[in-house]
Write a structure and sequence with these properties.
120 residues; mainly beta; OB fold (Dihydrolipoamide Acetyltransferase, E2P); five-stranded mixed beta barrel; two-stranded antiparallel ribbon; 1 helix; 8% helix
Amino acid sequence: MSIRTITGNLAADPEVVQAGSIQITKLRVIENTGEYRQGKWQAHPDPTTHFVEARFELGENAAASLHKGDPVIIVGREHTNSWEGDAGRQYGRVLEADTIGADLSRATAVVSRSSRQDQP
């Protein structure tokens, strides 16, 4: 698996799903991409959509803190998932988040530490 860092905006509110005994928070991040051509920035016509999953405390905190449209920075490990669909076997890339944060170049944030349950 390769480590990736992405920046973008949440396309929807985080979605929390139950997967066996754990909860997984799923995020869709839209990244506006482009390139420099002849010294000028040219945006690509279609943004890139990233599918992100966060587990345990990271997922819980993301679901409690983030909302549609929020600018984010996410670092994680990318892998391919497969599933059976109407058109046969399909594949998609998923970023398994190690770190999620607000992109402070495009937003402000108020940080409050989460309390650990094993402390009195």
